[in-house]
Write a structure and sequence with these properties.
- The complex is a heterodimer.
- By secondary structure, chain A is an all-beta fold.
- Chain A is built from no helices and 11 strands.
- Helix content of chain A is 0%, strand content 64%.
- The radius of gyration of chain A is 14 Å and the shape is globular.
- In chain A, strands 2, 4, 5, 9, 10 and 11 form a 6-stranded mixed β-sheet that branches. Chain A has a 5-stranded antiparallel β-sheet with strand order 1-3-8-7-6, with no helix packed on it.
- Chain B is mainly β.
- Chain B is 0% helix and 49% strand.
- In chain B, the strands form 2 sheets. In chain B, strands 2, 4, 5, 6, 9, 10 and 11 form a 7-stranded mixed β-sheet that branches. In chain B, strands 1-3-8-7 form a 4-stranded antiparallel β-sheet, with no helix packed on it.
- In chain B, a hairpin with a 6-residue loop joins strand 7 and strand 8.
- The radius of gyration of chain B is 13 Å and the shape is globular.
- The chains are: A mainly beta, B mainly beta.
- The interface between A and B is medium-sized, with 23 and 23 residues.
Amino acid sequence: EDKVVQSPLSLVVHEGDTVTLNCSYEVTNFRSLLWYKQEKKAPTFLFMLTSSGIEKKSGRLSSILDKKELFSILNITATQTGDSAIYLCAVEALGAGTYKYIFGTGTRLKVLA
Amino acid sequence: DTGVSQNPRHKITKRGQNVTFRCDPISEHNRLYWYRQTLGQGPEFLTYFQNEAQLEKSRLLSDRFSAERPKGSFSTLEIQRTEQGDSAMYLCASAEWGEISGYTFGSGTRLTVV
C-alpha cells in the first residue's frame, strides 16, 4: 500500500533557529512530491519536486528530493513565529487509473518568540 | 474568481441527519478532488472528478457518501445518516489538466456530528 511518512510529528523551536522536516515515501508510479503549509484552514502550496538533487528555494524555505532513497527534506532557516503551522508532504502517485496526492500526517511546527 | 470556495464553513448536525457540502472550484479547472482530514492526520483522498465524470472513489467512501459534479463546474458531497466518526474537515481541491503548481485547496467545511 502506498504510504508517506513524515518526521518529526511535532517540533518546537525558537525564532532564528533552522529546522529540517523529513518526508519518506513508498508509492508505485511516482510522479511528483509536494510540500504544503497548513495554518488554520486550507493547505497552501509551497513546492513541487519531480527531479532528484535539484533544490527549490523560496525565501527562507528550500526543499530537495532524493528519488533513489525515496525521501525529501524541507528546510526553513531563520524561523519566525509566522512559520508556525503544519507542514504537509504529499506524493502524487497513480492509483486506480488516476493520479492523486497521498499525504503524510504532517509535521506540526511551533516557533516561539 | 480567486480561489476554491467551500460552503458551509462549519456544520454541526445530529447523528443520523443528512448533510450536503458544496465546492466551487477555480473556473478553468477541470479536475476536482475531495479529501477528508481528521485531527492530527493529513488529508485522505475521497474522490476525484475530471469534468463531470467521477473517475475514482476511495474505499473510505462508504455507501452513505455520494458526490456529484453535474455540469463539470461545482461539486457537492452528501453524507447520509451521519455518524460521529464522520466528524472531520472536508477539503475540496481543484487543478487544471497538466498544471504543474499543485492543487488549489478550499478552506474546507468542518463537520461536527453530535
